[in-house]
Amino acid sequence: MANQEADGERTKENGSRKIIYILLGYVVLTLPLVEWPGSVLNHGLTNFIKAVIFYFFTVKFVRSTAQLKIFIAVFIGCQTFRVLEPMYLHFTQGYWGSQAYIGGGEMMDRLGGAPADIINPNGLAFVILTIIPFFYYFFSYAWWTKILMPPLLAVSVYALQLTASRSGMIALLLVVFSFFIKSKRKVALLLIACLSVVVLFSTMDANMKDRYLSIIDSHSKNAATAQGRITGIKSNFSVAMRKPLFGHGLGTSREANANFAGHDQPAHNLYAEVAEELGFVGLAIFFVYILRVIKQVGPQMKQLSSQFGSAHFYSRLNNSLKVWFAMNLFFSMASYGLSSYEWYLFPGLCEVVVRLAATDRV
């Protein structure tokens, strides 16, 4: 009973849940004021609830360390399968799944999700970058992880290269830098990273090399598409200024861009997406939500590092979640995500970890 009361107190103190409720209330109350309330009711609100439910289900049903371990194993296992399936099809059938325009009427192949999956190459890159921190920190957790993690990590990095996702490759550098900062074997990690870069670059064809070089080279063939992403974000915020206070409606970013910007795509920037859909009032609420989540990542989970040894499950999970969240913050600059599961699963997992670590239930 005492443990249940303590759990209740921690739940009350959690600010993420409050902001989620505020966001839901804001969407409902502003329905008469948005551009397309019908679109909000038809699909926007439904998709948002499907994403938000990850928070509530995680907090409600993960009640012990054993359940948390199963949850993480299933989550990482499912995400890994989403990477291995298109890679298997690529090696056996020459599957790519997507193409990208590189200028001059030329197209290049890019690895996307499997035929039955819903993710494009950037989405596949995000999945890969989600599992890499867990592969790294759980490498030495058990004998079987020492066998499985290295080949899975190698295949995942190679798959990331094949997505030709520039934001994904930059995010990978951020992830590796996070590993480097915390690592006690910095020289070995640096050598492995340099060797990996040489191997990956040597396997790229000319178009793939040009695409990645366009990150720093304004004269490359793919430079126009890189500049187009920046132009697109400016256009998204211009569309947001049509309905600056309450937006066009939850889930209407693509609809708004098609009608008022001339391109039938959702905003490829989380904050532009929120501004278009919820207005700048909604964007302010979402910023508060992100700050609350950052508070969970920092002070609330920092105690785990001193409470448990570095080899403990909680410490490994804590480090994995921190790197995943940092990557997610960066990736949000080049991807939509207001109604994506990760923004709500993450605080749910943090809340569960803090709660279980405090009682150390096994």
> What is the residue-averaged pLDDT?
86
Q: In terms of quaternary structure, what is this?
A: single chain
* Structural class by sheet pairing and helices: mainly alpha
Strand content range: under 5%
SSE topology string: HHHHEEHHHHHHHHHH
Question: How do the strands and helices of this protein lay out in sequence?
Answer:
Elements lengths: L1 H12 L1 H15 L7 H25 L3 H29 L3 E7 L2 E6 L9 H17 L5 H21 L2 H17 L3 H18 L2 H8 L9 H18 L12 H8 L9 H38 L5 H19 L10 H18 L3
Helix pairs in contact: 2-12, 3-14, 4-5, 4-6, 5-6, 5-7, 5-13, 7-8, 7-13, 10-12, 12-13, 12-14, 13-14
Written description of the protein model:
The protein is built from 14 helices and 2 strands, in the order ααααββαααααααααα. The chain is mainly α and 362 residues long. Strand 1 and strand 2 form a beta hairpin. It has a two-stranded antiparallel ribbon.
Question: What features would you highlight for this structure?
Answer:
single chain, 362 residues, mainly alpha, two-stranded antiparallel ribbon, 14 helices, 4% strand, disordered N terminus
